[in-house]
Design brief:
Radius of gyration: 29 Å
Strand content: over 45%
Number of helices: 6
C-alpha cells in the first residue's frame, strides 16, 4: 500500500461524497431513481391495562427479515415517539421497556402513504433485575475487564467541553492550566476514539476546551492497557469516545456558554447519513481571560541554617487563552465488507500573558533593601493539522477483521516573550535588563499501522499488528537583550536551535481465551526505537537507540453474574520529551528557568493491578489495589542556587533516578436510587518511595490520597441538579511538598422543548479553592510558589439539538472499543 495512493483516494472520496451518497441502493424504483427517504413512523406507547404513557420506552426498527437495527427512538414523557428519514418498504417495529413484555408488529411504508401512525400497548411482566443491572447498556458506569467507561451526559450533564467532562470522571483531574492527570499522575496517554491525540501540552489543553461536550459519548479509563496499545503513558490511557455512526438522515447540535465578557465558548455539530456515506463534523471555539495571582518567595540561609535574606515576589498576571478546532469524519461503505474512513482535525490556539510581578528584597530582619517590578509580555500561537485514513475489511463482524491506517500530523508553534526590570525604589520608573525571547517550532509526524483480528471459536481470539511512527521537530530559540533600554537589541549566547528525530517500530500479538468462568488474555509487544537530538549552535549530537519488550496479561473470573474478579499486568514506558532533552535555558520568568538534559533515558514501569467488581440493583462498587515498580524514573531536579548570565536563579531540570515503587488502591462506586438521586464516588490512596541511587541524594517516601463525589438529582421532570467535589491531600516530592488541592462545581439544568433544548447555570469553584502551592528547596535556599488561577466563575449555557441526535452503535465487550462498520440497508 503506497502512501500517495491512499491519501489521493481518501481526498477523492471526500470530494465525491455528495455524489456517492446520491447513488441508488438496491431497492431503487423502475425509473432508476431511489425512493425519497421521507417516510415516517410516529405513535405513542402506553400500558395495556391503564393507558398510562410509558416514558423512556425504547423503539427500534428493522427491515423485515433482517436482524440489523436501522433506526430507533426513546419515548418522551407523554409516551410519544417519532422516526424519520425512512424509505418505502416493509419493517418490523419492536418496543421494549424494563418490566414490560416486548411488543413487535409489522408496518409498511409506501410512496402513497409515507407516514404511519401506530398505537402501542405493552403489558407488565415480572422480571429479574439482578442480571439486567450487570449488562444494562445505559448505566452511568460500565465495568469491563480492562477499563471503566463513564457516560458523559451522566457524569457531567452541564459540561460544555471535553475538559469539563474529564474533570468530572473518577480518578481523573484537570488543573487550572488544562493539564490532565490520572490518579495524580500527569503522564497519561489521551486518546480520541482509540487513537492517540496528535497534540500535547498547551495545544492539547486548548483542544479539549473547544471539543463540544455533546459530541462525547463516554470516557474510558484504562489503567493497565494490553500490549495492543501504545505503551506510552505511565498512568494508563484515557480514551474519549465521540458519538459517531449516524444512522439515517440529518442531525445537528448547538452549544454556547458565557461567564463574563472575556470568558465564553461555543460549539456545533452536524451529522448526515445517506446511502453508503456516513459523515459527522463538529466545530468549536473557546475564549478564556482571567487574572492569575500568586507568590514566589525565596529564603536564603547560611551554613548554620540562619536566615540571610528574602526575595518576596507578588505575581499579578492577565492571562488570555483562545482556541478553535474543527473535526470532520466521512465513512464510505465501498462494499458490505469494506469501509473507508477519513478523519480530519484542525486546531488553532493563541494565548497572551501580560504580567507585572512586584519584587521586594529584604534582609534577615525584614528591613527593605530594594523594590522593583518585572513586567512580562508573552504571546503564543499555534496551528495543527491532522489527517487519518483507514481502510477496514470485515470478513465477519468482531471475529475476522483487517484494517490499514495512515496518519499525518503537522503542527507549527510560535511563542514570543519580553521581560524587563523596572526600578521603583527611587520613585521614577527606570527600565533595565530588557530581554526578548522568540521560539519557532515546526513538528511533523507520520504513522502507519496494520491490525488483524481472527476468532477461531466463540471465546478464542487473536489480535496482531504492526505500527511504525516517525516524528521530526525543528525548533529555533532566539534571545535578544537590551540591558539599558537604549533600543539596541543584541543577540544573546542563550540563543539556540536544534533538530529532533524519533522513530518507533512495533509489532504486537494478543491472544484471548475463555475457559468456563475464566477469561484469559496474554500479549507481547516488541519495539525498536531511535532518537537523535542535534544542536545547531554547538554541532553536538545525542543519538540514542534502544529495544524494548512490553508483555501484558489479564485474568478475569466471573464469580457470579454480578461479581467479577481480575488480575492484570502490563509494562509501560515514558520517553523523554524534547523540552526535557533541550540543554539550553528557557525562562519561566527572570527568577525561574528551565534547563533540559539531553542524556535522559526512558523510564519503564511494571504495573500490577487486582480488582473486584460487584454490580447490584442499586449500583456498582469496585476495589482495585495496584503496585507499580519504575526503573530509570525521570524526576524534576530543582537547583535553588543556580547562576545563569551572572544572575542567581532557581533552575528546573530533569534526571534519571534509580527506582520508584508505589502501591495503593482505588475504590469507586456508583449509586442509582431512581430519578431523585444518582451518583458515584471515588477514593484513592497510595504510597510512593523513590530511591535516587548511589549517585544522587534525591529521594522521597510519601503517602497521599484523593477523593471525589458526584451526584445528580431530578428536581422535576425538566430540572436537574448536579454537584461534584474533588480533594487531593498534600504530597511530598523530592526536596519539596505539594499542598492540598480541592475543587467544587454545582450546576442546574432546565430542559426546554422536550429534550431538544436546555439552559444550564453552572457555578465553578464556588469556594475559591482552585489554587496551587508547592514548597521546594535545600539547606541553602527555600522557595514557596503559589498560584490562584481565577477558576471561580458563573457560567450560563444553552444547548439545542435538531433532528435525530447522533446514534452510537455500542460495541460488544470483545470489540476492544471498536465499532462495526456501517452496512447500508437493503
Amino acid at each position: 500500500m503506497r502512501n500517495p495512493v491512499i491519501a489521493a483516494l481518501g481526498l477523492f472520496i471526500l470530494s465525491r461524497a455528495p455524489l456517492a451518497s446520491a447513488q441508488a441502493p438496491a431497492s431503487a424504483n423502475l425509473s432508476g431513481q431511489p425512493p425519497s427517504p421521507n417516510g415516517e413512523v410516529r405513535g405513542t406507547i402506553v400500558e395495556a391495562k391503564t393507558d398510562v404513557p410509558v416514558a423512556r420506552a425504547s423503539v427500534s426498527l428493522r427491515v423485515k427479515g433482517s436482524t440489523a437495527i436501522i433506526t430507533g427512538a426513546i419515548a418522551s414523557s407523554d409516551g410519544s415517539f417519532r422516526m424519520q428519514g425512512l424509505r418505502p418498504g416493509v419493517y418490523a417495529l419492536r418496543a421494549t421497556y424494563i418490566g414490560f413484555a416486548p411488543h413487535v408488529q409489522e408496518i409498511t411504508i409506501t410512496p402513497a402513504s409515507p407516514v404511519v401512525t401506530v398505537g402501542i400497548k405493552i403489558t407488565r411482566v415480572a422480571v429479574e433485575l439482578a442480571g439486567v443491572s450487570v449488562t444494562e447498556e445505559r448505566a452511568t458506569v460500565a465495568v469491563e475487564p480492562d477499563r471503566n467507561s463513564y457516560r458523559a451526559k451522566d457524569v457531567a450533564p452541564a459540561a460544555g467541553n471535553a475538559s469539563e467532562v474529564l474533570d468530572a470522571v473518577p480518578a481523573v483531574q484537570v488543573d487550572g492550566d488544562g493539564k490532565v492527570s490520572l490518579r495524580g499522575n500527569e503522564n497519561v496517554a489521551v486518546q480520541i476514539n482509540g487513537r492517540p491525540t496528535p497534540m500535547r501540552g498547551p495545544q492539547l489543553a486548548s483542544y479539549l476546551k473547544t471539543l463540544p461536550a455533546n459530541t462525547i459519548d463516554r470516557i474510558e479509563v484504562v489503567p493497565n492497557p494490553s500490549a495492543k496499545y501504545d505503551p506510552e503513558g505511565m498512568a494508563g490511557i484515557i480514551n474519549i469516545v465521540l458519538k459517531q455512526n449516524v444512522d439515517l438522515g440529518l442531525s445537528a447540535g448547538l452549544n454556547a456558554a458565557v461567564s463574563q465578557p472575556d470568558r465564553y465558548n461555543g460549539s456545533g455539530n452536524l451529522g448526515y447519513q445517506k446511502g453508503r456515506v456516513t459523515s459527522f463534523a463538529s466545530a468549536g471555539f473557546n475564549r478564556d481571560s482571567r487574572a492569575i495571582v500568586g507568590i514566589n518567595d525565596r529564603e536564603r540561609y547560611d551554613a548554620l541554617r540562619s536566615l540571610m535574606s528574602v526575595t518576596a515576589e507578588d505575581i499579578d498576571s492577565d492571562a488570555r487563552n483562545a482556541g478553535q478546532n474543527l473535526n470532520a469524519s466521512v465513512d464510505y461503505a465501498v462494499s458490505k465488507r469494506d469501509v473507508l474512513s477519513n478523519v480530519l482535525t484542525l486546531n488553532r490556539r493563541s494565548s497572551r500573558d501580560a504580567a507585572i510581578n512586584a519584587f521586594a528584597e529584604l534582609d534577615a530582619s525584614g528591613a527593605l533593601l530594594d523594590r522593583y517590578h518585572r513586567p512580562k509580555d508573552a504571546d503564543a500561537k499555534g496551528w495543527m493539522f491532522d489527517y487519518d485514513i483507514v481502510l477496514k475489511r470485515t470478513f465477519e463482524p468482531r471475529k475476522h477483521e483487517l484494517s490499514g491506517e495512515v496518519r499525518f500530523n503537522r503542527s507549527h508553534d510560535e511563542d514570543e516573550q519580553t521581560l524587563w526590570r523596572e526600578s521603583t525604589s527611587q520613585g521614577a520608573l527606570t527600565r533595565t535588563e530588557g530581554e526578548h525571547d522568540l521560539t519557532d517550532a515546526l513538528a511533523k509526524q507520520l504513522t502507519g499501522q496494520i491490525d488483524y483480528t481472527r476468532s477461531w471459536a466463540s471465546r478464542t481470539k487473536l489480535e496482531t499488528g504492526y505500527k511504525g511512527n516517525a516524528r521530526w521537530l525543528d525548533r529555533d530559540y532566539v534571545v535578544e537583550k537590551d540591558s539599558l533600554d537604549t533600543g539596541t537589541w543584541l543577540r544573546s549566547p542563550l540563543s539556540n536551535a536544534f533538530e529532533f528525530d524519533e522513530s518507533v517500530h512495533a509489532a504486537y500479538a494478543v491472544l484471548s481465551q475463555g475457559v468456563g468462568r475464566l477469561d484469559l488474555q496474554a500479549g507481547l509487544r516488541g519495539e525498536h526505537a531511535e532518537r537523535d537530538f542535534s544542536l545547531a549552535q554547538t554541532a553536538q549530537s545525542y543519538p540514542y537507540r534502544y529495544n524494548s519488550l512490553f508483555p501484558s496479561g489479564v485474568i478475569l473470573f466471573n464469580a457470579t453474574a454480578a461479581t467479577q474478579l481480575k488480575a492484570s499486568y502490563s509494562r509501560r514506558i515514558r520517553r523523554p520529551g524534547t523540552q526535557e532533552l533541550n540543554p539550553f535555558v528557557s525562562y519561566f520568568d527572570v527568577q525561574n528557568v528551565f534547563i533540559g538534559n539531553p542524556a535522559l533515558a526512558p523510564e519503564y514501569t511494571n504495573a500490577f493491578e487486582l480488582g473486584v467488581t460487584r454490580n447490584g440493583r442499586l449500583g456498582m462498587i469496585q476495589l482495585s489495589p495496584f503496585y507499580r515498580h519504575t526503573t530509570n524514573i525521570i524526576r524534576v531536579e530543582i537547583n535553588t542556587t543556580d547562576t545563569i548570565s551572572g544572575r542567581e536563579v532557581t533552575s528546573v531540570s530533569f534526571k534519571n533516578l534509580a527506582t520508584s515503587n508505589s502501591w495503593g488502591t482505588d475504590l469507586n462506586g456508583s449509586l442509582r436510587l431512581g430519578p431523585r438521586l444518582n451518583g458515584f464516588a471515588g477514593f484513592n490512596v497510595f504510597r510512593m518511595v523513590t530511591d535516587g541511587g548511589s549517585t544522587s541524594s534525591l529521594g522521597s517516601d510519601a503517602v497521599t490520597w484523593s477523593g471525589r463525589v458526584n451526584g445528580t438529582s431530578e428536581l422535576s421532570k425538566t430540572v436537574i441538579l448536579q454537584a461534584s467535589y474533588f480533594y487531593r491531600a498534600p504530597m511530598k516530592i523530592e526536596r519539596g511538598r505539594f499542598e492540598s488541592v480541592q475543587m467544587a462545581n454545582v450546576s442546574l439544568r432546565k430542559k426546554l422543548d422536550g429534550d431538544n433544548a436546555t439552559v444550564t447555570l453552572r457555578l465553578s469553584d464556588p469556594l475559591n479553592t482552585g489554587a496551587f502551592r508547592v514548597r521546594a528547596g535545600d539547606d541553602k535556599v527555600t522557595q514557596v510558589t503559589q498560584r490562584n488561577f481565577g477558576s471561580r466563575m458563573v457560567w450560563l449555557a444553552f444547548q439545542y439539538n435538531y433532528g435525530r441526535p447522533p446514534r452510537v452503535r455500542q460495541p460488544r465487550p470483545d470489540q476492544e472499543g471498536s465499532s462495526a462498520p456501517f452496512i447500508p440497508p437493503p
